[in-house]
Amino acid sequence: MDKPPVKMMDPTLAEMGNHLSDAMKILESGKLESEQGKERRKLSWKDFPGPLQGDGQDVVSILQLVQNLMHGDDDQQGHRRMQYVGEQGHMALLGHSLAAYISVLERERLRKLTTRILSDTTLWLCRLFRYENGSAYYHEDDREGLVKMCRLAINTHYEDYATEGFTLLSSKHPVIYQSAACRPGLGQHLCSQLGLPLSSLCIVPCNTMFGSLHQMDVALLDKLIRDDRESGKLPLLLIANAGTPGAGHTDKLSRLKELCVQYNMWLHVEGVNLATLVLGQVSSTVTAATKCDSITLTPGPWLGLPAVPAVTLYRHEDPALSLAAGLTSSQPVEKLRALPLWLSLQYLGHDGILQRIKHASQLSQQLLEHLKTLASIKTSTPSPPSVVRKFPSLASSGGSVEGYLAGERDILDALNRWLGEQLAQQVPLSGVDVVELEDEGTCVRFSPLMTAAALGTQENDVAALVEKLGEMIPVLSCTLRFRQDFKDEVLQQASLSYIEDQSWPGLGGVRYEARTTDLDEDKRQYRVERINSDLLKKLMELDTDLYFSDGPEFCEEKNCIFIGMATEDLDVAELVETIVSIGRDIEESGKLFENMTEVVRRGIQEAEQQLQKANEEKLMEEGVLRQIPLVGSVLNWFSPVQASVKGRTFNLAEGCLDSTEPVYSVKAQMIKEASLDSPKSVTKRFPGQKLFRRHGAGSDSVSDTSSVSQLEESFRETAHVQAIDAEEAEVPQEHHVHIVAEMALSDQRVPEGQETESVDTLR
After folding, report:
1. Rg of the chain taking only CA atoms, in angstroms
2. Nearest-5° angle of CA 237, CA 242, CA 245?
3. Which residue of 43, 187, 353, 662 has the smallest Cβ count within 10 Å?
């Protein structure tokens, strides 16, 4: 049997595919220019907007420019991971190139091709998402489909709208209802695009007594609709969620559909949970979306397809009204929007699409199973595909609620924000982010349907996420427990002020206050700023795991030091004492330097006066003749004079002139030095033990639910033993210093006759 003849590919299409493949290899290679090329580019005017060059450039040069613009800041800001673009992504990108090429075909051939593309894509999507007898509208902005549905509903309810326009709306105002859990700004965008006043938008609260806090209150919606009808308004359209933007909850779509049928309203559904309609087993609450008047799909993030349009599937029997609403177009170029999606769906096939959605759902289920073992995590999503979790209230974390009730929400929001940022940084392939929910506050969201296909998230990434989560939960719990202890310790110190900033994810903030009260306000503020700045630098140089910072970017308090997250073995008392001790040393040394200029000036004047007086005494003692150069030499040869000038030393610490005689009293001097250099008693530390840590305590040795009182009691016992050891070890050390000093005395004595050879010195 003869094989069917193989048709030759259009050389233009083949060349286009090759060029796209080469371009993607160049852009995705990540090979940047050499160091020499970077230096040239820094000085090149090509990085700045300018006139178009007269001569053209080749493709490689243009792609190199694009690559520089894409990766130019990687060496300064670190490499930023781009979306994973696989073969299916290349097909989507090829679709945009093909759309430009196809648009130049002759009109009849272009019409046939666009009709085939639209009909195929619409049929495939309707079958995949179980939306029977539906039509499709393809749009770049995922809100544009809802705008078109509103126009269609207006044209349906107002028969003469096409000719009379908005004058018809003045007699019977349309009302659009949306859930309070809808994405922010959606209703305002609708009113802006439709030319409707904001009074036409009705926000329906979520349940407050029964059911989920993120589901629309159906009973209240029924009451609102009846009230609007009685006041002469027209209930036009209801926007429901199959996966709220924040928590992924699904409204009671079956009950809402019954309500819309009762009041002749249009029901539109959107949300990430609509992606699960392609699976074999789907929740009945999501399946109800297939009976609604319209749904908006976003296959791009679900399947990892870049630059593909969103799709709104709808049912309507009047083509004229669909045309009036802008849902159909006679322009072939408009119909080519579906081309990238048409190519990508064919490349993936039914099994490939199903596999990606199923994989994302399994990742959510995997995370949910692991979160059940963590008692300190509250899950806001009852089921996949999105998981929203939150570090819970203080009572459940084992800490004391006293003192935190007023600002508990702000504190937990700050800690959850820190948790989300750390997880996103340490496990970037997980795709976690931080969301703000009205009732729960700040939460960490894991939505693999929106991120897994683009990032290539796998099971090991979820395992790494759970591992990091298990490491950070004890840190959060300890920080909550130690916040109040840290505040109490700071308030006991007269030289420290506690900074109350509940948005800071850590122990809190302090400010070292200057003890001098005789300065004016400007000088005092300057001294406080300098002391705290130097104190922060000193603390950051310490060998400790604690994080020290000058605070949040928009902190109202200035000249502060903020301490980050704490661990189980943190010694809060030692931390505060160290801050006070270092701050006091900086303040005292600062006072010395501030007075140094005046002290040195006075000392120099006094030294000059004493030197002048000594010279006058020398002149009176030796006589005038000895001052004459030639005569003085002869007299000194015949009759030498044993003249002596007493040495002077300038003590900067005391700001006065002293005689140098004590310098040569070696024993007294060495004893003085030994007393100054004798080490102070410090807290005894074990090998490898860092600052501010209690020996024997650790995040692994003590459970998260252990009481603070037990930890403090064990710390007191350890501190008592360490204090006894320090006292016993201090005596022999001091004795050894004196022995060394005595041994040095015998070798450093100066003959008395050499005292006269010293000169005035400044020490």
Report:
1. 40
2. 95
3. 43
Residue carrying structure tokens 């009572």: 395
Neighbours of 649 (CB within 10 A): 18
In a 13 Å sphere around the CA of 112, the CA atoms on its Cβ side amount to 4
* Residues forming a β-bridge with 638: none
Nearest to 431 by CA among 368, 378, 364: 364
Check whether 643 has a pLDDT greater than 60. no
**200 contacts 191 by C-beta, under 8 angstroms:** yes
Cα→Cα distances 437→183, 246, 272, 444, Å: 11, 6, 17, 10
The DSSP bridge partners found for residue 311 are 138, 297
pLDDT band at 409 (very low <50, low <70, confident <90, very high): confident
Query: Which residues have C-beta within 8 Å of that of residue 334, sequence separation ≥ 6?
Result: none
**What is the Cα–Cα distance from 696 to 706, expressed in whole angstroms?**
15
Whole-number Å distance between alpha carbons of 429 and 426? 9
Residue with tokens 């030692």: 574
* 439, 262 contact by CB (below 8 A): no
Report the C-alpha gap between 316 and 134 in whole angstroms. 8
Q: Tell me the one-letter amino acid at 579.
A: I
| Residue whose pair of structure tokens reads 């619409």 in the numeric block | 122
Query: Average per-residue pLDDT in the chain?
Result: 77
In the sheet that 174-179 helps form, which strands lie side by side, from edge to edge?
Answer: 135-139, 310-314, 294-297, 266-270, 234-241, 174-179, 201-204
Backbone angles phi, psi at 519, to 5 degrees: -95, 155
Task: Kindly report, residue by residue over 553-566, the tens digit of the pLDDT.
Answer: 777 778 899 999 99
Tokens at residue 260, please? 């819309």
Round to whole Å and give the CA distance between 546 and 552: 16
Under a CB-based contact definition with an 8 Å cutoff, are residues 137 and 148 in contact?
yes
Report which residue type is found at 272. V
> Residues 420-469: pLDDT tens digits?
999 999 999 999 999 988 778 889 999 999 999 989 999 999 999 999 99
Which of 221-230, 293-302, 606-615 is predicted least confidently? 606-615
* Average pLDDT for 490-498: 91
Cα-based angle 691, 693, 695 (whole degrees, multiple of 5): 120
545: left (phi over 0), alpha (psi -120 to 50) or beta: alpha
Coil, strand or helix at 305: coil
Indicate the DSSP class of residue 331.
Answer: -
Give φ, ψ of 399 to 5 degrees. -100, 180
Cβ-based neighbour number of residue 599 at 10 Å: 17
Q: Is the dihedral of CA 123, 126, 127, 131 positive or negative?
A: negative
